[in-house]
Amino acid sequence: MQLQEKEQQLLDLLKINSRMSAAELGRQLGLARSTIHMMLARLEEKIIDSYTVKLKNLDVENQTTCYVLITRDPKKAVEIEEKMRAMAEIDSLVTVAGQHDFIALVRTDSTQHMDRILTEIAMMDGIIKTESHIILSEKFDRRL
Q1: What one-character-per-residue DSSP string does 60-126 give?
Q2: Of the candidates 108, 96, 102, which has an alpha carbon nearest to the alpha carbon of residue 122?
Q3: What is the per-residue pLDDT across 1-13, written as a single tens digit (0 to 9) for each?
Q4: Alpha carbons 41 and 35: distance in angstroms, whole number
Q5: Sign of the C-alpha dihedral, residues 39, 44, 47, 52?
Q6: How far is CA 70 from the centre of its chain?
Q7: Is the pLDDT of residue 61 over 80?
Q8: Which of 144, 133, 128 has its CA nearest to residue 64?
């Protein structure tokens, strides 16, 4: 879908703050609130999948984060994805080319909790192999 310039600007504003009111979005874009609502309806139909919550890193010292490289049975990919989507501890699941099939980003509040989640992932039907990489420190993160 080809975006118009104002639609792209609207998406950029929503990426920064998805809770911004239609009135404020309209002010920043120089558009009427009703126009913003129409644009949002169109974008929600075609592009916007969901609005979500990004948590503040209030207690990063006690947070455990891990990348999990996953090799799976190709016949079980959809089932595995659905199970992982239901796990709140998994922030992200991507498919990759190469030796592994998925990489999951897992966040928990303790190493004991991480151990339970990693075991749960490894024991899923269709998982052939997992390789875990605990993050020791974050140097920078450019994601919103």
Answers
A1: GGG-EEEEEEEEE-GGGHHHHHHHHHT-TTEEEEEE-SSS-SEEEEEEESSHHHHHHHHHHHHTSTT
A2: 102
A3: 678 889 989 988 8
A4: 10
A5: positive
A6: 17
A7: no
A8: 133
Of the candidates 54, 22, 51, 19, the one whose C-alpha atom is nearest the C-alpha of residue 37 is 22
Q: Distances in Å between the alpha carbon of 114 and those of 15, 68, 71, 73, 92? A: 29, 11, 19, 23, 15
What is the pLDDT, as a whole number, of residue 3? 81
Residue 133 · residue 69 · CB < 8 Å? yes
Residues listed for the chain: 144
pLDDT band at 138 (very low <50, low <70, confident <90, very high): confident
> Which letter does DSSP use for residue 2 in this model?
P
The DSSP bridge partners found for residue 70 are: 102, 130
**Pair 7, 43: CB distance under 8 Å:** yes
Q: What is the mean pLDDT of the chain?
A: 89
pLDDT value at 98 more than 80: yes
Residue type, 59: D
- Euclidean distance between CA atoms 77 and 126, whole angstroms: 8
Distance of CA 45 to the CA centre of its chain: 20
Q: Please report the pLDDT score of residue 18 as a whole number.
A: 85
